[in-house]
Write a structure and sequence with these properties.
Largest sheet of chain C: none
Chains: A mainly alpha (413), B mainly alpha (224), C mainly alpha (105)
Radius of gyration of chain C: 18 Å
Oligomer: heterotrimer
Low-confidence stretches of chain C: none
Largest sheet of chain A: none
Number of helices of chain A: 14
Order of helices and strands of chain A: HHHHHHHHHHHHHH
Strand content of chain A: under 5%
Distance between the termini of chain A: 81 Å
Structural class of chain A: mainly alpha
Radius of gyration of chain A: 23 Å
Number of helices of chain C: 3
Number of strands of chain A: 0
Low-confidence stretches of chain A: 390-401
Largest interface: B-C, 104 and 80 residues
Helix content of chain A: 55-70%
CATH class of chain C: Mainly Alpha
Distance between the termini of chain C: 64 Å
Strand content of chain C: under 5%
Shape of chain C: elongated
CATH topology of chain C: Helix Hairpins
Chain lengths: 413, 224, 105
C-alpha cells in the first residue's frame, strides 16, 4: 500500500498538487467575493453618506454577504418560458470559468502559484477574454430584449477594451523582458524599482491599464451592459437565485484578477517595498530554512492580497463617484483615445529602453518616484485640511478632524 | 499503474470528440456554436497538455474570444426568428454520415500505416525524444514563446535546428523503414519573417475586405 | 516515470474533428453552420500540427508556427465568410445555402 502510494505520488505529484491548488483558489475566490460585496456596500454607503450594512454579525455588518448568499441560495430559480433553457443554464458557468481559470497563472507569492507559466500574463488575458462568450450566451439565451441589448453591448465593449488593455500591459513586459508573472514580480523588489516608477511610459500605462481593466470588468462608469436605469439589469435581467450569484462571483473574481495583473506588472507584486525577497531573508539570511520560506510567503501572500483589494477598492470608489457614460462614449473612448494612447506608450517605452542612456533612465525613474510620493503626500494633506465648499456637507468628513487648519465645524447651519 | 497524464488525455480527448459530434448533430445554430466553443476549448486544453502553452493561449484568445463571438454576432444579425432552426433531411444525414465514416476510416488507416514506420531503434529514439521533450515542457524552463517569437521576428532561433527535418522514410540495409536525420542546413538560423509579414498584410486586406463587404447598404428587396 | 500518451491518439482525435467538420459542412443548410464546420476542420489539422511538434524534435517550432498561422488564417476566414453571409442575407433575406442558386446552369 505504502509502496503503491509513493509510486503514485512520484508519477502523479503534479496532478495531486494541481487539485489542491484548484481547491485553494476556489476558496480564495469565494472569500474574496464575500469580502468584496460587503466592502462594496460599505464603500457605497460611505460615499452616499449613509451607513451600509450594520447589523448582521455584530459590528459593521460583516456577515451581511453570507446572509445575502443564504437568501439567494434558497430563492426561487426561475427560467423564463421564452428562454433557451440550455444556453440560459450554461451561460453563468462559462462566465465563472473564464474568471476563475485566470487565477491559475496568478502568483500570490514567491512560488505560491498554481502553474508558473512562461506566458502567464498572456494566458490570463486569453482566459479572461473567453468570459465574453458566456455573457453573450446569457444575453441571447434569456430571450428578453433587455438581456440581448446588455449582452451585445457587453460583447462590443469587452472585445474593444481588450486591445488597449493588452497594449498597456505590454509596456512593462518590454521593460521586464518576460511574460512570466513570477519573474516580473521578482524583478521589482524595493519600492523604487516598481515598474510604475520605471519611466513616464509605464507610469501612464498603469493608469490607462486600470481604466481599461475597469471597463473590461464592466464596472461603472463603464457598466453599460447592466445599466439599471435603461436596461433593467442588462444581461442578467432574467436571472435569480444561484445563477445570479454565480454571475456576481465571476464579476468580483475578474475584478481581482485584473487588479492582480496590475499589482504584479506595475506595483511590485507581492513585494512589501523592501529591496530583498522576504522568503530569501527568512529562509537564508535568518537560517530558518523551509519554515522561514513559509513565514516569508505568508507575509508575501497577505501583501499581495491587500494590494489587490486596494485596487478593487479604487474600482468601487470610482464606481460610486462617477456617473455612467453613454455606450457611444464608451466605444469612442476606447477606439479613439485608449488604443492610440496604448500604441504611443508601447512605441515610446521601446525607444526609451533601447536608446535612452541608463543614467538618464535612472534619474527620471527616481524623479517619478519622488514626485509620486510628494503628490500622494499633498493629496493626503488636502484631504485632511481642505474645507468643503458646501456648508455643512462635510465632503471629506471621514478625514477631517477638529483642530486642524481649515476645519470649519461639522454642521454649519 | 494509474497514469494521470494518460487519464487527462483520454478525459479531454473524449470530451472534445463528443462536443465535436454534438456540434454536428445539433440543429439550433447558436447551440451548435456553443458546442463548437467547447470543442475549441478542449483543443486548447490538448495543446496545454502537449506543452504548447503559447499556441493554446492563442487558440483561446483568437478562437474563443474572437471568432466565436463573431460567429454568434453573425447568427444574431441573420436570424429571422428568435432561435434559428434549419432542418436537414434524413437522406442527407444518411449520405453524409456514411461518407464521413468512410473518410474517418481512410484517415485512421493512413495513420496506422504511418505509425508502423518507426521500429526498433528509430522507435526507441522517438520515444527518447518525446520523454526529453516532456521534461523540457516544464513550464518554468520551456522557452517556446520566446523561440516562436524569435522565429517569427526574423532573428532566427537556436543552433539545435541545424538539420532539415527528415522528409521521407528510407529503407536501411536490413530493409527496415527508418527516418534518417536530414541533411545539415547551410544556414543555422531559420526564420519565418516573410510568412509573418504576408500574414499581417493578408489580415489587413481581410479587415478592409470584410468591412467593405459588410458595410451598411440599403437592402435590395430580396425574394423572401 | 510514466510513459505518457503516444502520438497515435492525438492523430485520431484530429481525424475525428476533421471528419466532424466535413459532415458539418455537408449537412448544415445554414451558411454559418457551414462556417462552423470549416472551423472544426481547421482545428483537427491544428491538433495534428501541435502533436507532431511535440513528437518530432525537428519539427518542434515549425509545428507551433504552422498552428499559429492556421489560427490567424481561420480568424481572417471567419471575418470574410461572415461578411459574405451578411451580404447574402441582405440580398436574399435568408442564410439558407440552398437558395444560392443563381449561377446554376
Amino acid at each position: 500500500m505504502l509502496k503503491w502510494l509513493s509510486e503514485f505520488w512520484n508519477s502523479n505529484a503534479t496532478y495531486v498538487l494541481a487539485i489542491i491548488a484548484a481547491n485553494l483558489l476556489i476558496g480564495f475566490m469565494l472569500v474574496h467575493a464575500i469580502f468584496s460585496v460587503w466592502l462594496e456596500r460599505k464603500v457605497a454607503g460611505r460615499i452616499q453618506d449613509r451607513l451600509g450594512p450594520t447589523r448582521v454579525g455584530g459590528k459593521f455588518g460583516w456577515l451581511q454577504t453570507l446572509a445575502d448568499g443564504m437568501k439567494l441560495l434558497v430563492k426561487e430559480d426561475s427560467i423564463p418560458a421564452s428562454a433557451d433553457q440550455f444556453l440560459f443554464r450554461l451561460g453563468p458557468y462559462i462566465v465563472l470559468l473564464g474568471s476563475f481559470l485566470a487565477f491559475i497563472a496568478l502568483p500570490f507569492g514567491d512560488g505560491v502559484i498554481a502553474r508558473d507559466m512562461n506566458i502567464g500574463l498572456f494566458f490570463m488575458l486569453a482566459i479572461m477574454s473567453s468570459e465574453v462568450f458566456g455573457i453573450i450566451l446569457i444575453g441571447y439565451g434569456s430571450g428578453s430584449k433587455w438581456s440581448l441589448f446588455g449582452g451585445m453591448r457587453e460583447a462590443a465593449q469587452m472585445i474593444s477594451y481588450e486591445i488597449p488593455m493588452a497594449l498597456c500591459v505590454l509596456v512593462p513586459v518590454v521593460v521586464a523582458g518576460s511574460m512570466n508573472l513570477s519573474e516580473v514580480a521578482k524583478q521589482q523588489s524595493g519600492i523604487w524599482n516598481w515598474y510604475i516608477f520605471h519611466d513616464p511610459f509605464t507610469f501612464c500605462a498603469f493608469w490607462t491599464y486600470f481604466t481599461c481593466a475597469m471597463a473590461s470588468c464592466k464596472r461603472a462608469p463603464f457598466d453599460l451592459a447592466e445599466a439599471e436605469s435603461e436596461l433593467v439589469a442588462g444581461f442578467h435581467t432574467e436571472y435569480s437565485g444561484f445563477r445570479w450569484l454565480v454571475i456576481f462571483m465571476a464579476e468580483y473574481g475578474s475584478m481581482f484578477a485584473v487588479s492582480g495583473i496590475a499589482v504584479i506588472m506595475f506595483l511590485g507584486g507581492w513585494s512589501l517595498g523592501l529591496p530583498f525577497e522576504l522568503t530569501d531573508f527568512f529562509g537564508t539570511t535568518l537560517h530558518l530554512g523551509f519554515f522561514g520560506v513559509v513565514i516569508g510567503n505568508i507575509i508575501n501572500v497577505s501583501v499581495f492580497i491587500v494590494k489587490g483589494w486596494f485596487l478593487v477598492f479604487v474600482m468601487m470608489w470610482v464606481r460610486w463617484t462617477l456617473p455612467r457614460l453613454r455606450i457611444d462614449q464608451v466605444m469612442m473612448m476606447c477606439l479613439k483615445y485608449l488604443i492610440p494612447i496604448g500604441c504611443v506608450l508601447l512605441a515610446g517605452v521601446s525607444v526609451w529602453v533601447l536608446f535612452v542612456p541608463i543614467i538618464l533612465q535612472q534619474i527620471v525613474g527616481w524623479l517619478l518616484f519622488i514626485l509620486s510620493l510628494a503628490g500622494l503626500g499633498y493629496m493626503g494633506f488636502q484631504l485632511r485640511t481642505w474645507s468643503s465648499a458646501l456648508p455643512g456637507a462635510g465632503m471629506p468628513g471621514m478625514w477631517r478632524m477638529e483642530g486642524l487648519p481649515g476645519y470649519q465645524g461639522a454642521t454649519k447651519n | 499503474m494509474f497514469d494521470a497524464e494518460m487519464f487527462m488525455f483520454w478525459l479531454i480527448a473524449s470530451l472534445t470528440g463528443l462536443c465535436a459530434i454534438a456540434t454536428v448533430i445539433t440543429q439550433n445554430i447558436v447551440r451548435s456554436a456553443t458546442w463548437l466553443l467547447f470543442t475549441l476549448a478542449g483543443t486548447s486544453s490538448i495543446f496545454f497538455l502537449l506543452g504548447a502553452d503559447f499556441v493554446g493561449a492563442i487558440q483561446l484568445l483568437i478562437y474563443v474570444g474572437g471568432t466565436m463571438v463573431l460567429v454568434v454576432f453573425g447568427v444574431m444579425l441573420t436570424a429571422q426568428g428568435p432561435f434559428v432552426n434549419m432542418r436537414t433531411s434524413g437522406a442527407e444525414w444518411a449520405i453524409s454520415i456514411v461518407a464521413g465514416l468512410m473518410l474517418l476510416g481512410v484517415l485512421c488507416f493512413g495513420l496506422t500505416s504511418f505509425q508502423k514506420l518507426p521500429t526498433g531503434e528509430a522507435l526507441a529514439k522517438a520515444n527518447e525524444a518525446h520523454s526529453k521533450q516532456r521534461k523540457a515542457n516544464d513550464p518554468k524552463t520551456s522557452t517556446h514563446a520566446s523561440t516562436i517569437g524569435q522565429a517569427l521576428s526574423g532573428v532566427g532561433y537556436g543552433p539545435i535546428y541545424k538539420r532539415m527535418p527528415p522528409l521521407l522514410p528510407t529503407k536501411d540495409a536490413k530493409g527496415n523503414l527508418v527516418t534518417l536525420p536530414g541533411a545539415p542546413r547551410e544556414t543555422e538560423r531559420i526564420h519565418y519573417l516573410l510568412p509573418f509579414e504576408i500574414v499581417s498584410v493578408h489580415l489587413l486586406v481581410v479587415l478592409i475586405g470584410a468591412a467593405y463587404l459588410a458595410r451598411a447598404k440599403r437592402r435590395r428587396g430580396g425574394k423572401a | 516515470m510514466s510513459e505518457g500518451v503516444a502520438l497515435y491518439p492525438y492523430l485520431v482525435l484530429g481525424a475525428l474533428l476533421f471528419t466532424c467538420g466535413v459532415i458539418c459542412m455537408a449537412t448544415k443548410r445554414n451558411a454559418i453552420g457551414v462556417l462552423i464546420g470549416v472551423e472544426l476542420v481547421l482545428n483537427g489539422s491544428n491538433i495534428n500540427f501541435v502533436a507532431f511538434s511535440q513528437y518530432n524534435p525537428d519539427f518542434q517550432v515549425e509545428g507551433m508556427i504552422f498552428a499559429l498561422f492556421v489560427i490567424v488564417m481561420a480568424a481572417g476566414e471567419a471575418a470574410v465568410a461572415l461578411a459574405i453571409v451578411l451580404n447574402f442575407y441582405n440580398n436574399h433575406s435568408t442564410v439558407d445555402v440552398d437558395s444560392a442558386e443563381e449561377l446554376k446552369g
